[in-house]
Write a structure and sequence with these properties.
elongated; alpha/beta; 2 domains; three-stranded antiparallel β-sheet
């Protein structure tokens, strides 16, 4: 996906939901200009709720965004609108929601030893995080996440 986000420490839920969409969303406490510049040089857009960053004249305004809302779903709507994000079926659930790593497709035989027995019987498609060593599959939890994300795109915003 074309946009990458550096998400400040008070916006952890926002980082997780951006990852569900498939966006690179690094979640980190940024405390000094040198660390921030390192990410900005890599093309990351800094999302924060700390107004002191807005006062820094050295920061490029197009690489810094002050998140207005305190509520996660409103924050998502705000970011979707501001950055014109898309709900792309090719990227949704392509990253680990915990560590941001791109997930790898695994076949049923590779997953069976690592997932609950009944999951191995009813699912054929799995994804795996090579860092967290977690397996993912399209269950009811995924359906709830998709519904939540779709609500972010449909209420007040139609990409």
């Amino acid at each position: 996906m074309d946009k990458k986000f550096l998400v400040d420490f008070m916006l952890g839920k926002l980082a997780k939901w951006l990852r569900f969409l498939g966006y690179d969303a690094v979640y980190k406490s940024i405390t000094n200009m040198r660390d921030l510049e390192r990410y900005l040089d890599q093309g990351y857009i800094f999302l924060t709720r700390r107004s002191d960053w807005l006062k820094n004249k050295k920061l490029p305004k197009d690489m810094l965004y002050f998140v207005q809302s305190n509520k996660t779903q409103e924050q998502m709507r705000e970011i979707i609108r501001h950055f014109n994000l898309k709900l792309d079926k090719n990227y949704i659930f392509s990253r680990c929601s915990r560590c941001n790593t791109v997930l790898v497709e695994k076949n049923k035989e590779e997953a069976i030893p690592h997932v609950p027995e009944y999951i191995g019987k009813i699912h054929n498609r799995f994804k795996f995080c090579p860092i967290c060593k977690r397996f993912y599959w399209p269950g009811t939890h995924r359906e709830r996440i998709e519904a939540w994300l779709k609500a972010c795109f449909t209420e007040g915003h139609r990409p």
